[in-house]
Design brief:
With 359 residues, the chain is an alpha+beta fold. It is built from 9 helices and 16 strands.
Length: 359
């Protein structure tokens, strides 16, 4: 197969051209979408590229740091000739203009052209819209979760006659319209997500999911009784419930609901992972999350409902509480990662040497 450049195809020799690749993705996103193929020369012939261990992960992080709004392209690695090529595909963006390195671009023929100030203004006016969770919910057949509505009404919240999507997702009894808001949980045999022992999907309102999910987790992890000399035995879960609640709430409130993926809880023999679709805001560094970070909400409507319900605070100290809860429960420090366009929290179980006696 011979590849040719066009208005929807760009060829690049290697990821050393990462800046130009990101510019092309911005240009495609501002037009009708397109694909950058890495590992191909200008004549369309393969260059037998060999990918490094962290090449793709590093590139995805560079996209996150240098596009606004952040682009989430699909990456398809193929064996081609004696090496590999990577097809990086981005659709036309629903949120134009998309900037790369502080500049907006557009694909014209085989070239990426900087957009004029006037064209940027036109795109802003044309594509400006409310965030997903603030958009009006146009289906009038809503069954509200009565218990949560009562709790909120006691705090001055009025059941909306014309709810937003965020209010619907938080307060409905059953979410049947937005499949990305379903939360998935599974207990796997061993240390890989292959063989299921137990699994469940949660499509209740977001405010109800936290406790239901914690019950599922409790059913699939160990509870230890620690004899410490007191009259009663102390219960010690394999993973700290305080930390788990904080991580789950953080995922429900701050995930990217424009991403078609689901929040996932994966329980293995040696770890527990919580996957939240969407990467961190560019202002937050993943290696310093436990320090005093400010809250940068992605879903302000959902955040407001959870805040009114008393489920969360809005000070940006949640990661510190996660770290502290693990320390108190004698778990190793949590690991925060970004994988495949998701923010992932990895917890390790209580170290056996920290438990005085199991009964």
């Amino acid at each position: 197969m011979i590849y040719k450049e066009s208005e929807i195809v760009e060829l690049k020799a290697s990821f050393s051209d990462w800046k130009k690749i990101i510019v092309s993705l911005s240009a495609f996103a501002n037009k009708r979408g397109g694909t950058v193929i890495v590992g191909i020369d200008d004549k369309g012939e393969p260059l037998h590229m060999q990918l490094g261990k962290s090449t793709i992960e590093d590139f995805v992080n560079k996209i996150k740091s240098n596009t606004d709004p952040v682009l989430y392209p699909s990456l398809n690695i193929k064996t081609f000739g004696l090496g590999e090529i990577v097809e990086i595909t981005i659709p036309s963006s629903d949120y134009k203009p998309v900037f790369a390195f502080g500049q907006a671009w557009e694909r014209v023929g085989k070239s990426n052209i900087k957009l004029s100030v006037q064209k940027i203004r036109e795109l802003v006016l044309r594509f400006e819209q409310k965030p997903f969770d603030k958009q009006p919910f146009n289906n009038t057949n809503i069954l509200y979760d009565v218990e949560w509505v009562k709790k909120l009404q006691q705090k001055g919240f009025s059941k909306p006659n014309h709810p937003t999507i965020g209010e619907y997702l938080c307060l409905c009894t059953k979410n049947e319209l937005y499949p990305q808001a379903i939360v998935k949980a599974a207990r796997f045999k061993g240390t890989q997500p292959v063989n299921f022992i137990d699994a469940r999907e949660f499509n209740e309102g977001l405010l109800s999911i936290t406790d239901l999910l914690l019950d599922f987790i409790k059913k699939n992890i160990r509870l230890k009784y620690v004899i410490s000399g007191k009259a009663e035995r102390d219960e010690q879960w394999e993973y700290p419930m305080v930390a788990l609640r904080e991580i789950i709430l953080n995922a429900l409130v701050h995930r990217d609901y424009l991403d078609a993926g689901n929040i996932q809880v994966r329980i293995f023999d040696d770890s527990l992972e919580i996957w939240s679709p969407g990467l961190l805001p560019k202002e937050l560094a993943i290696d310093t999350l436990w320090k005093n970070n400010r809250s940068i909400p992605r879903n302000k409507e959902i955040l407001q409902v959870f805040h009114q319900a008393g489920e969360i605070e809005n000070w940006g100290t949640g990661f510190y509480r996660i770290l502290d809860a693990c320390k108190v429960n004698k778990n190793p420090a949590p690991i925060f990662e970004e994988r495949a366009g998701a923010f992932v929290t990895v917890l390790k179980p209580v170290l056996e040497k920290n438990v005085e006696k199991n009964v």
